[in-house]
Amino acid sequence: MQNHKTPVSSKLSIIAQPPPPARQDAAVLEMAVDVVRKKSIEVLMVPKSRVERHQKNVAITIDQDLIKSILSKFYSSVIITEVSSRNCLTKLAERSPDLVFSGVKYFDFEEQQIWLNDFLDQQNISYIGSNHSALNKEYNKGTAKETVRRAGVVTADYFTAGRDELETIKSTKLVFPVFVKPIQGGDSLGIDESSIAFTKTAMIAKIEQISDLHNCGSIIETYLTGREFSVGILEDELTGNITAMPIEIVTPKNKRGHRILDYDIKKSDNELVKRVANKDLLRQLSDVGTRAFRALGGRSFGRIDIRLCSKNIPHFMEANLMPGLSKGYFFRSCAINLGISYEQMIHHIAKNRLNQIG
Ligand SMILES: Nc1ncnc2c1ncn2[C@@H]1O[C@H](COP(=O)(O)OP(=O)(O)OP(=O)(O)O)[C@@H](O)[C@H]1O
Ligand SMILES: [Mg+2]
Q1: Is residue 31 part of a domain?
Q2: Ligand 2 centroid to 220 CA: how many Å?
Q3: Quick check: is 147 in a domain?
Q4: Inter-residue contact 163 to 207 (CB < 8 Å)
Q5: Is the CB of 135 under 6 A from ligand 1?
Q6: 61, CA 20 to 30 Å: which among 24, 52, 116, 345?
């Protein structure tokens, strides 16, 4: 598998000051469209009928027409490729494009699971984002927390539990409140006001609900009562420099007076996204985001979710190494911190990987 990582310490450069809203970061952006580079890019999609929300093998759905129209301004050959069989992948390998732009994790063909990024690594074809091994570490929230904790990043104390461990939990001494959420998954699925449990009975009921409705175990953490942030990450792969782009996410209080980014809030888009004005906090968030991204083996871009505890210490919550590439938090973190447009963001993500292969 390819590994383009550079040593962490020597290459770290974190944006420590909030730039003015419309700043154009010349290092990050190179928007001259007068040169259309001779590169071939394939934007992958799976057959329409299979692109359902939360489909397991699609990490993020991308608007392939929009991506194609943006990238066509900068590169000579950009096509959309629908992958519906193993044969489509074989043909893709024969064409050997300079870059694959995709949000697909794996394919199930003839009972065989093929991870797209592994396949592309074997074919020496570049793709956006992190490799399979990093995505695996990020996917399980317990593994992600353990990995970043080993790298010295602060994260809330936790344990994991499935239905068959409930008897052991019943006899364990715990400090309440705790926060209960599915051990894996995104979009705040399975997270609602009952995620904050003040008693053992409430905690067990939530673990059972997650098992029944989402068919997975739970992660039970110390409830972090402070403000919430997300740190967009852009890595310059030629230099190894990281640009960390923190934003604050302010959610309305729920019926019980808590602010959590639960499923309903995300769906209704009721949260407020703000620039982080305090320089100290900005530096701390950038540091946690950068170190977590590095520890998980992230590449090129990602988003790290962080929350403050009651003592205002930033705690790593979870990582998104394939953050949504529509106009959600990742884009907003780029726009707010760098003043860049959506088009510039998409171009940067492609350019970064194309530089990698010269
Ligand atoms: N330990 C915690 N203490 C307080 N709130 C928490 C905790 N863990 C999660 N939350 C709340 O639940 C939300 C969703 O949690 P998390 O980010 O782990 O889930 P997700 O579904 O993977 O989100 P994403 O859509 O970002 O992938 C957080 O944004 C935060 O508001
Ligand atoms: Mg999250």
Answers
A1: no
A2: 15
A3: yes
A4: yes
A5: no
A6: 24
Q: Is the CB of 131 under 6 A from ligand 1?
A: no
Ligand 1 pocket test, candidate residues 139, 140, 188, most atoms within 8 A of CB: 188
What CATH number is attached to the domain comprising 209?
A: 3.30.1490
Residue-level pLDDT, tens digit, the chain, 358 residues: 333 333 333 333 334 334 444 444 444 555 555 578 899 999 999 987 654 544 678 888 899 999 999 999 999 999 999 999 999 999 999 999 999 999 999 998 878 899 999 999 999 999 999 999 999 999 999 999 999 999 999 999 999 998 888 888 888 888 999 999 999 988 889 999 999 999 999 999 999 999 999 999 999 999 999 999 999 999 998 899 999 999 999 999 998 899 999 988 888 888 999 999 999 999 999 999 999 999 999 999 999 999 999 999 999 999 999 999 999 999 999 999 999 999 999 999 999 999 754 3
- Do 14 and 45 share a domain, yes or no? no
Q: What residues make up the domain containing 16?
A: 8-20+135-152+224-356
Contacts of 332 (CB under 8 A, 6+ apart): 247, 273
Task: Check pocket membership of 157 for ligand 1, CB cut-off 6 A.
Answer: no
Other C-beta atoms within 10 Å of 258: how many? Answer: 16
Question: Candidates 140, 222, 317: which one to mutate for ligand 1, based on the most atoms within 8 Å of Cβ?
Answer: 317
Token pair in block for residue 115: 């991870």
Query: Using only C-alpha atoms, what is the Rg of the chain?
Result: 21
Q: Say whether both 348 and 284 belong to one domain.
A: yes
Domain count, the chain: 3
Residues 6+ apart with CB under 8 A from 135: 59, 105, 117, 321, 322
